[in-house]
Amino acid sequence: MLLNLLLAVSIGIEGGYHIPAVGFNNINTGTSFSLSAMRKVSFVDLTVGTQTTFYAGDNQSYHLNTFGLRVGIQKSNWPISPVFAIGGDYISRDLNQNSEAGVAVAYSIGVLMNFRVNQILIYPKVYYDGLTDMKVHAGFIGLRLGIGYEI
Amino acid sequence: MKYRILLFALLVVFCGDNHIVQRAAEDYFPLRVDYWWRYASENDTVLVEVEPADTILQIEYFPVSYNGVVQYLTKSDNAVLKYVRKVYNYAGNDHTVIENFVVRIELPFINGNSYEYYLADSIYVAGQLIKAEYSITATVIDFAYESDYGDIYEINLLTIESMFTPDTSIVDTSEYIEYYAPGVGMIRFVDGTSEYQLIEHNIP
User: Fold this and answer.
1) Interface pTM, i.e. ipTM
2) Which of A107, B91, B121, B158 is the most exposed place for a label (fewest CB within 10 A)?
3) Where are the domains of chain B?
4) Where are the domains of chain A?
């Protein structure tokens, strides 16, 4: 059963940039990495992954970092596929060795292009990465390149 | 049904009272021309108005009138800075001892952040050494949720202005506690023994 599950899974690694789009006027840019697993469920590809992002503030002593889990859907056999993901992020922000932390609902909406070479999947992605604490919504435009491997 | 309960539980967990996105994403010190705030204490009101920008020392600043008493403020990437000028009057002429911008509020607000900035200079006037100092010490004491505004930051500010001549020493100490709300700016301040509350404001 487990072997069967593993054989049907693709793993992917992604990296890219985030630029503030809504709110976060004190952030310059961010660097984002994620590691995910993808499995076909019904007619979509379900992804489960972790994502971490490091943001540099306009104030050079200020940093904002996020780490979270996302569950998403996409179509890896379409040349161009929409991407939706939702999850939760742990957010920490620090200035001069003082820090605050909290959690937020995180979501991504975007599109990716699939390029397949044998078992390797290369997918550049553009998306909006939103964060909300149910009081305020804010987010980033993300540009990311992913590389996946079908086991 | 199971998934709906899970989703609801997830939202409850993530949406508690911790508004980290609000504190991280919103502007706690809006500073634009024509913005104004009116505060009231038990027996007094203070109108704070932002006037059209001008330039001093090649830095663009906003004159901010506090009931007619103007402070010159500018907002940079990491702080709100205040223009400080200390003059020594001798025989009817003003001699500038200190003239510079100094950090008043470090941005963004982070609970526990504490800082101190200091200006000092001296000049000779009629053969006498005149020395002036200006220091500001501040601490972001805490943040707390208020239903009207969201997460409010409380800041304690202490300023000490000094002027030393061979004959006299003048030291003026002021302490303020200020409360800042996202998208609104200062909503309350304590000046000596009087507490002022925001009663109306104009931020288009």
Assistant:
1) 0.88
2) B91
3) 2-202
4) 11-100+127-146
